[in-house]
Amino acid sequence: MFKALIFDMDGLMIDSERLYWQVEKDLAGSYRKEVKEETLWKMMGRRPIEGLRIFVEDLELPISAEEALALRDARMREKYRDESEAMPGLFHILDTFYGKLKLAVCTGAQREFMEVVVDRLKIREKFNVLQASDEIKKGKPDPEIYLSTCVRLGLEPKQCIVLEDSSNGALAGKRAGCYTIAVPSEYSRGQDFSFVDFVASDLFAAEKHISGLLGPGV
Length: 218
Prior knowledge:
The protein contains 9 helices and 6 strands; from the N terminus they run βαααααβαβαβαββα. By secondary structure, the chain is of the alpha/beta class. It has a 6-stranded parallel sheet with strand order 3-2-1-4-5-6, sandwiched between helices. The longest helix has 19 residues, at 65-83. The radius of gyration is 17 Å and the shape is globular.
């Protein structure tokens, strides 16, 4: 039944949410503001400009979302290049299903950052599709990005398994019609995942669950 496994990137493949939170807290502090976790949660998984609109509005900053995004990107560009590290279990789950399922990345981040990550981790060749938010109009929790990924994979959504760490991202996967597994990080564990098909404690647990779904010999 299942023929593809689709990975979110930030907070799921790499430990980047801590980097975003550091940068966003520093950015707020530069305007003598303090950003609440609720705001950061709302931003997670969304297209960059959509997340920064929330950031600017919630903090009532005297700059536009576009200006805030440019400031954040300048700081994140360096952190992606020098500090992004694989989440525990990432290489294990990729090795388990490479050659057995089609694999894809489906991220709310820009293609620029996605390209840095897959090359830094040396995993580009593992994936059939690399889908970034630059190429869509509506970000997560809208299902557009997952529907686009399914089309590029040549599969129906019901044939695809989605791995997500944020509620926004998981909701996008479910709305697209994919089997959706949440793998919350320490930054997203307080979010609502009541609607997903399965909640895994980490990528090792996700791999075990998916292996069970596929059955012996897959």
